[in-house]
Amino acid sequence: MVRKPMENNITVIVLLSAILHPLWNAMIKRDNCPEGAFVGNGTMLVFLAGAHSLIAGHDLLTITKIWHLLIITVLAKLIYTVSLVTMLRWGDLSAYYPIARSSPAFIVLISALFLGVLYTPLVLAGISMVLAGAFWLQYKRGGRLLNNPLTLAFALLAMAGTGVNSIADALAVQVVAPSVIFFWTFIFTLPGFVLFFIFFGGEKVKTHSLFSWVRNPLPYIKIGVICYASYFLILLAYQGGGEVAVVNSVRQASIPISVLLGGVWLKEIGMKQRILASLLLSLGIVIIVLSR
User: Fold this and answer.
1) Eight-state DSSP code of residue 289
2) Each residue of 97-142: pLDDT tens digit?
3) How many CB atoms are closer than 10 A to CB 84?
4) Alpha helices, DSSP H only, in 60-120?
5) Distance between CA atoms of 211 and 24, rounded to whole angstroms?
């Protein structure tokens, strides 16, 4: 089967999403309680998706057509989000976000290990570039080989979660409107986020801090709008025929953007190394996907 190149309009949609995605991640990273910021963001997403569905005339009950995919999406989203928020609390955006967004490499790796798929030397070279880029992002002269292995583990979990989520979403939007999928995904995941953060968020996360956004909702409305636009654009790309691996490779434009945000906005250090490492990682992902 010969894969068709992605149409220009879909490419533009994916690039817009790639610009928006690290922006809302950085806004949550800057919050005094990232966990509470995500709960506020998730609440806004439910309202936005519900309002969008009603205004557009989409039947929210059509989700019953793809309940099996919804279950996969909800579980993958829970893994991704809990891992992402924990990663943002413990580590630098510029060091760990690129790894969390490396889902195309994860998809290829799973195919090779468990599905018996064989890859060309060029694909293996791309995988090596991804691994080298990920290592380079973590490396600090004079420090441990892996400076923060637990945070790295959460970044890898986030990567796996978003990889599975992407595959399920791409199938689901062929049957159900993207806003409907978004609405039900967060209806079911939001209680899970709250419970996890209450019981496993650590001493810094108090129950009342998860709802501090109620007193000042405007910043979280902004985060919610940016987040909703970012994910909705990707669902539109899938609905328009964008192939999962190709769409996710184009989304890797978000990786160097996240590194720039980490340096300029969050004042993280080691930017020269991280920019070069993120570009190496991104190029490896593109090679992997386009060489399959």
Assistant:
1) H
2) 677 767 766 766 766 676 566 667 887 777 677 767 766 765 555 4
3) 26
4) 67-90, 93-100, 103-114
5) 18
